[in-house]
Amino acid sequence: MKVEEVVAQLRNLPPAPRVMPMLLKLLSDINTSSDDIVQLLELDAGLVAKFLNISNSAYYGGRGDITDIGEAVARLGFKEIYRIVTNIYAKAFVGKSMNSYQIKAEERWFNSVATGIVMEMLTKRLGHGDPATTYTIGLLHDLGKTAIDEVFDHQYKEVLSAVSNQQITLQEAEQKVFGFDHAQVAAALMRSWEFPEEIIEPIECQFEINNAHVYKYEACMLHLSRWVCASIGGAPGTSAWAFSLDESVFEVLECSEQIAMQLILESKDELMKKEDLLKL
Fold first, then answer.
1. pLDDT in tens, 209-219
2. What does each C-alpha distance from 221 to 105, 134, 169, 208, 248 come to in angstroms?
3. Is the separation of the CB atoms in 164 and 184 below 8 Å?
4. What is the pTM of this model?
């Protein structure tokens, strides 16, 4: 079976998050106005309701007095608007439990948010890339697991068996059993949703960083961020240990292992500060 055929079989995923890639495009345009943002968000009535609820939450210092989307945009600013919208959509895809991977909903959401936050921290530390983009990459990095869990639920035990018996990584086991891994499935799904390649390619190449052509730097950032999250206990699932760090990322990113160790410590503090994000 080809990756595209897996995507075609999906039946239980939420509707395509059409606003996300469009919003990211707007934010990259210096001429974008608040009205442009409001008009885009209003395309999704369900999104608006959730958006207003979160805007009034304690995390954003809300007092329950934000009653319309325009006021929320004006008060919170574009950066936080994007974070809220991204988290709302992401929760529908990567905030649910998965039987095949043996991951609980809260564990998976923690891993997704943690990876996004570490990506954002790494972006600022290295001075490379856009934090909103890299946060999205981290947040959606294991989107493909959702698709595999739906299509190959009963067959996935073969993957876990291969990991255990052959002592190989989860990605290698998926390749052996299916002929592709969850990163490649995520890429196919996101291309069908018309996400930009700057988000798709790093996710697709998070295991095979040398396969990245244009966005190898971001793929290396994601690869390292996944390792950092695993180090703080943010990699859930029966075979979470089955991940091999490609140390060539340090050369590509021009950073040391010491920076990675600092990120491990700092990310714990950052996650505590943003604890409310994990409860969305």
1. 999 999 999 99
2. 25, 9, 19, 12, 11
3. no
4. 0.89
